Amino acid sequence: MQLTSPAFKTNAHRAMADAGLQKALGTAKGAFLQRRAAAVAALPEFEALRDIGRDIKNHTLANLDFYLEAFAAKVEAAGGVVHWCSTADEARATVLAICQDAGARTVTKGKSMISEELGINDHLEANGIAPIETDLGEYILQLRHEHPSHIIAPAFHLNREDWEADFRRAHTDLPADRVFAERRDILSEARTRLRAKFLAADVGITGANFLIAETGSSVIVTNEGNGDLTQTLPRVHIALASIEKVVPTLEDATSLLRLLARSATGQDFSVYTTFSTGPKRAPDLDGPAAYHVVLIDNGRSNMMGTEFQEMLRCIRCAACMNHCPVYGAIGGHAYGWVYPGPMGSVLTPSLAGIEKTANLPNASTFCGKCEAVCPVKIPLPKMMRHWREREFERHLTPSSMRRGLGVWGWFAKRPGMYRMATRIGVGALRLLGRGKGAFTSLPLAGGWTEGRDLPVPEGGTFMARYKAKQKQGRGK
């Protein structure tokens, strides 16, 4: 995928002017928030469970090499094959080789963000293999030649009429009187088209929500059942997973699963939670003849031991973006790569480099809601601040901003001068704004007034008012 994060500001302006996108964001976001709130309220031990989830992930990351090796040994003991890939190029080449060895012409895919990160679809197509997305949202995006805008609801940015228009365009044999008034109409159409694809596929590719070192199992959660069909019907199953997905035991995985669905969709558990352990055994009625796990680093080991290691706790629930006011205003495509929202504002610079993604850590109000709702308590605002520090250190910020911060820093180190300057500034603004109520434009404040008015100060400076309040308190 082409990295468009450098164009974030342009993307954001375009998104806010897109009426269709704004309609979709307004419709979908509220449902996620309400369902999560209800699910959390119904589980009294949810906060204690967050601590457990955080501790499981911290322990695993502190012993990551041990658990990855233990997982690989269990997979191989069960008859599977583990492929260790340091880079995206290695992972793409590995997946292609497995498909070619199987003589694959078509590949069904369950929803997988790591496959989006790797660009697996484009790579397979370029080598004569047809990938078929089987997740409902991913399927419509494949018809539209778009990438996901959300990590659990890939078609978050679309309205019902968009689905209908794309089905009519792509499915040219649809009768003119076919209606798509309800969600079940969309599901029925997709199911009809995909059933034959499931049966014809030579290879099935899924992601993995968790990898269990104790058993060598990969775990996926879905609400449509497409993941089960993808990994049991083809002759070969490939599970793609980044290295931080491993957890020590089955008990650890179930603890995290209790957090995942509640944080993501407001369910107690996803409709389908599937554990895969090796290829089909002699007594098994179904399952793949070959089972491959492709373990991908692609920059994650560089995060270990740094101030960004805590990002590797992420279980991809999307709660942070569902509650983010910035994501809620512009959607996911504006972020310009696979991972949007607050988690993307930390993870994308870690994987792609701050030089290409410096806009993302600045795409935050720092309201702190993302950290407050994260099921494994990732301090996302703190890590965005660390990226801003690196951006400033490397002189990636605009020169005007650096000059402005330099002036502010000079005054901030001199409290007396700072208080005098703020008094003068407040007084000047009050004088200039007499009778106005608010400024619609102001020299040196265009970045603010371009999108909103600047109220005329009504009283003195904060420091002056705070001092007066203290005196008033002592007088009582």
TrEMBL record:
Residues 304-335 form the 4Fe-4S ferredoxin-type domain. Keywords: 4Fe-4S, Electron transport, Iron, Iron-sulfur, Metal-binding, Repeat, Transport. GO terms for molecular function: 4 iron, 4 sulfur cluster binding; metal ion binding. SUPFAM superfamilies: alpha-helical ferredoxin, NagB/RpiA/CoA transferase-like. It comes from the Bacteria. The keyword Iron-sulfur applies. PROSITE patterns: 4FE4S_FER_1, 4FE4S_FER_2. GO terms for biological process: lactate metabolic process. InterPro entries: 4Fe4S_Fe-S-bd, 4Fe4S_Fe_S_CS, FTHF_cligase-like_sf, Helical_ferredxn, LUD_dom, LutB/LldF, NagB/RpiA_transferase-like. The keyword Metal-binding applies. Pfam families: Fer4_8 (PF13183), LUD_dom (PF02589). PANTHER family: LACTATE UTILIZATION PROTEIN B (PTHR47153). This is Lactate utilization protein.
